[in-house]
Structure formats: C-alpha cells, structure tokens
Automatic annotation (TrEMBL):
It comes from Pelosinus propionicus DSM 13327. The chain crosses the membrane at residues 7-29. One of its GO terms (molecular function) is endopeptidase activity. The keyword Protease applies. It comes from the Bacteria. This is Carboxyl-terminal processing protease. Pfam families: CtpB_N-like (PF22694), PDZ (PF00595), Peptidase_S41 (PF03572).
Amino acid sequence: MSRRKIIVSAVLLVIVTFMVTAGGFLYLLKGNSSDVVSTLKFFRALQVVKARYVEQVDTETLVAGAVKGMVSSLGDPHSVYMDAKMYKEFMVETEGSFGGVGMVLGVKDKTLTVVSPIEGTPSDKAGIKSGDQILQIDGKDTKDMALDEAVNKIRGPEGTTVSLAVRHENEPTKEITLTRSNIQIKTVAGKMLPDKIGYIRISMFNDNTGNDFAQKYKELEAEGMKSIILDLRDNPGGLLEESVKVASKFVPKGPVVSVVTRDGHRETHSSSLEAIKYPVAVLVNGGSASASEIVSGAIQDTASGTLIGTKTYGKGSVQTVLRLDSGAIKLTIAKYLTPNDRSINGIGIEPDIKVEMDKDAKSDVQLDKAIEFVKEKMGK
C-alpha cells in the first residue's frame, strides 16, 4: 500500500439538490453529450429504485453504493471507497496504532495477498509470510472482495478473533485463527553491529518514521558508525513524504522521486545532501513495496548504495484521500518515477546483488551478505 497523506476537503452534495441548482445544470452544460446522457441515466436509476423497490431505502445508502461501485469499476485495487468506519481506521493506521492482527495486504494476480506481516504481531507470530494468499476471512471467499473491505474484516477490537484460510506457495490451504491485539506501529529500530556497522530496520512509513529514523541515525553516528545497512525487507510502504525524508540521508543533492499525474504534471521531491557519508547496503525482498521502493529505487539510481536481496513488490502508484461527507475515496492520482525516470509499477526493482533466503540456513544469509559487502567497502 504507497499512500500519500493528502487530505482534500470536499462536500458530498445531496443528489436531488445538485440537480436543481445552477451549479448542477452548469456541470451538465459543460460536459460533452456522453457525460450528460450518463449523468441523466444515473439520476433516472436513482429515481426508479427510490420509487419502485419493494422496501423503502434512503438516498444516502443508494448514493454510497453508487460511489463504491463507481470506484470499484476502475479495476484498481488501490482505489477504494471508504465509509466512515473504514476511513477512521485508515487514518489511525497512518498515525501509529490500530486493532488487528498485524499484516499489510495487497492484491496480486487478482488474489488477496500478504505484502508483509508486521514484526511481533499475531500474524508474524503465527508464521504468516510475505506472499501468502488469504483465500477466506471468517469463511467468506475473498475472490471478489475489495482490498479495503478485506482489511476492514480482518481488523477489530483487541481480544476478538478472526479466522483466515491461508495458502503458502504450493502448500495446501490451512485455516489459522488469530486473536486481534492493539497494533502499536513502531516503525524504526536499530543497533550497532561489530566493526562499527550501523543497522537500521524500517517496518513501514507512517507519520513518525522520518523523525524516528533521523534520531536513530544520529545515535549511531554518535557511536562512531562507519557504514550502514538499511533493512527494508517486508516493508509495505506508507507515506511518500516520510520515505523522502529517509532517502535524503543517503541520496546526494538532486531528485529522489517524481510524481507524475495523468496530464503529465510532474512534482519532484529532492534531497539536499551535500555528499554520501558512508558505504550503504539496502536489504529488499518481495515484501518491499511502495514507499520502500521509492527509497531503494533512489539509492540504486544514484549509486549511493547497493541493493541486496530479491526483487521488490512493484507498487509505483500514488493515492490521495478525498473526503466525502463522513467517508472518503482513496484514489490513485499519479505514478511515481525513480531519479532515472523508471516506472516500477507492476515490475519491481531487481537488487544489485541477488541473495535468496535459505530456510535451512542457521543465520540471515541476506544480512550476512550485506555485512560482508560493507566490510569490503570499508577495506576490512
């Protein structure tokens, strides 16, 4: 999920009022004939349902259903209509805590897929892995379920349970029951490894990530850091602005990412770093998505570090949140490009050094390779 935290206020006009105001007629007059016909068709359908359906139904319910269907028709799993409850939960996630099982979901090959479990949460403890497919939630098939609807069903009050039918690679589907907990999202952790190698792990990008990363980076510098390993494995992304803050500690002065809209408008976010300070290795895998791909793509394009691991997820789109009365639409409004103008959407980023995880290994072979790499750069 890259979700750019831009909240644009908008008032949802009552449909009938809209039609009889000068503004409503002006909209129809400005539209082409196809727009006019389609708009009139919508209002005719609304009128028919209101007048003829076997039971009375309020306009707000019908309009919400129409908006949900409209956004769903885009065929974009990242564009969704959120009712008041879903919108509230979405905002809580970006702000740092929520009730749930601790996994980030996406849609891959039209199947609900785990982008990554969040460290230390019920999902992580139950052994759920990046790439696992969620086929059912509490017995309900997820095949035609919208992404945010699935997220909403999995989340819930602390102490309650949710049952998931999970398929891992080519293994038989198994049912896992998880007890929801209060998910506190501390996104940054770090420590000093031997030989003054700094290690920082970022689990996702929320409101606090940029500042928390800068603080941890400063602490490691004070301890005499001589090189750094940035671990973005199973990082599903988050807020674009926070990823730029992190990338700006590694990428020399110049572009970090460009956001390009449908009409070709380009907004470029840049780093002001005067010079690269340390040898850098970045760990990535198939669970590294969105904002984490912004960071890793910028580091790779500017040769300010080396990517180690496996190919990233491939989410190169930007969403904004548009308020509609008590709910909202999360809408894909742009694609992002790396400093070399690469679009990685649906493609992913290939690491500079490919290292597959070995399930039978007694150590983290990807981290081992990163340590070996930065040691060579340090001349050790």
